Description:
Blueprint: H1 12-45, E1 48-57, E2 60-65, E3 70-74, E4 88-91, E5 98-102, H2 108-112, E6 115-117, H3 130-144, H4 146-155, E7 167-171, H5 178-191, E8 197-202, H6 203-206, E9 210-211, H7 213-227, E10 231-236, H8 251-267, E11 277-283
Parallel strand pairs: 1-9, 7-11, 8-10, 10-11
Antiparallel strand pairs: 1-2, 1-4, 2-3, 4-5, 6-8
Helix pairs in contact: 3-5, 7-8
Amino acid sequence: MAEQNAPEYPPALELEKELTRKERQIEYLQTELRRYHNLMEELKQGMRPIGTVEDVKGDTALVRLSGGQAFQVSIPPEVRDKVTTSVDAVLSPTKGVIVDVIERMRDRSLLEYQVEKAPKVFYEDIVGLGKELVSLRQAIEWILDPETRTRREQIIRDPRMLEEAGSVLLFGPPGTGKTYMAKAVAGTISKHGQNTSFLKIESYEIVSKWLGESAKNVKEVFKLARESAPTVLFIDEADAIGRARMEATTDAGRDVQGMLNQILTELGEGFHVNRNVAVIFATNYPSVIDPALL
C-alpha cells in the first residue's frame, strides 16, 4: 500500500497572523454594529432643537437657535434651577418648552487630549503602499513645511490656485493603512525638525442629535487644528458627515446639510487661514461622498 503524503499545513506563524486579522475584522464589525445601533436609537427619538438661553424671566426664557430664530419658551419646575443665561437648552419638538439643559456636546478639554504631538510613526514604517504614499506626500507635505510652502507661494502667484490646497481623501477597505499613512506624515515631518501635531477625529464624534450642534462641533475641530498647527487633521469615516446632499425635508436633513456646509466653509476659509493645516479625510465608501468634497 502506497504511503500517503501527509497533508501540508500552513506554518503556525501564518495561522497566527490570519487569526489576528480575523479578530481585528470582528472587532471592527462589532464597533460598527454598536455605532449604527446607537444612531438608530437616536433617530427613533427624533432630533431635538438646541439653543442658547439669552434671557430668563420667571418661568419663561428666551432661547435662540443656531439658525438665528428666537423662541419664548416655558421652563418646567424640574429644570428651573439649571436654566441660566448662556447655557445650552434642549427644546421640545414644538419649541415651546425647555426639556433639558446640557453641557457642550464636545468638551474642549476632551478634544485636546486627542492632539498627538510628533507621533512616532514614519514613512519607513509604511510597507506595500509606495505609490499611495508618494501621492499623499505630494498633495499635503508642502503645506506643513515652511521652506517648501514659501517656495511654492513664490511660484504660484494666483492665490485662487492655493485656496483648496492641503486636503485629500483616502479610501479603501478597513485595515489598509489609511490612518497609519496620515500619522506617518506628521511623524516624519516632526523628525526632520518641524514639530507637527496629529489630530484624529472619528466622524460620528462630530455628529450630534441636537439640532445645530454638529456644525458647531465641526467649527471647534478646525479651530483646534489651527491652534495646534502645524497639524495633520485626520477625519475618519468621512461618509458619516460628507454624504451627497439631497433635498432636505426634515430638521434632521437640514442639520446634516448644515454640517457639510460648515466643513466646506472651513476648507474654503482660504490658504492663508489653513496654511499650516493638512486635512485628510478617510472613508470605506467613496461613492457616497458629496461631489463638493471631491
